[in-house]
Each structure stands twice: as structure tokens, then as C-alpha cells.
Amino acid sequence: MTIMSRVAAFFRSRWLGGVPIDRLFWRDLVVVGTAINVASSVAALILLGLKLPLALVLAVHFAPVPYNIFLTFAVWRTAGKSSGAKASLMTLGATLWLILVVVA
To answer: Do residues 79 and 98 make contact, with C-beta atoms less than 8 angstroms apart?
Structure first.
């Protein structure tokens, strides 16, 4: 399996709800997504400290936003296939997480 087919399978499985909601929310969104955002922010701060162009700093800082939006929508879609308080809380949590990582 090539790297591109693995990447495509990763995104497809999450978009189509093939990943359990707990793994999608806690591992993919909260742990990995937050780590990517922290790394991006640290890299942007380093670039800012090196006095590189602001456009580059902002591009690095906001680079994870499309992935963040994808993860949030994937949680919404997966939670929409089930009912109950847990699904509603994860949808709310994903929304609040998206707002937090985009604003911070």
C-alpha cells in the first residue's frame, strides 16, 4: 500500500464514519489535532522570532485549519449516525475545540 493510498484511506475512513467515535474524538481530534496545532504555533513563533515575513508566519500558524475543519466535520458526521448524550457532547466538544484552536 503506497503512502498516498494510506493517506486517502485515513481520510476516507474518518469521513465515512468507519472509525469509532471515541478514537476519532479523543485520539485524532483532541490528542493528535492539538499536538499538530501546538507544533504549528511553536514553529510560527520561531519564524516570528527570526523576523521572517509575517505572511509566512501566519501561513505556518494557520496551516492546520483545513485539517481541523475536516476533523470537526468528521466527528459531526460520525456522531450523527448515533444518538444519545455522548454523541451530542462529542459534537459540542469538537465545535468548541475548533473554535479554541483557530482563535488561539
So the answer is: no
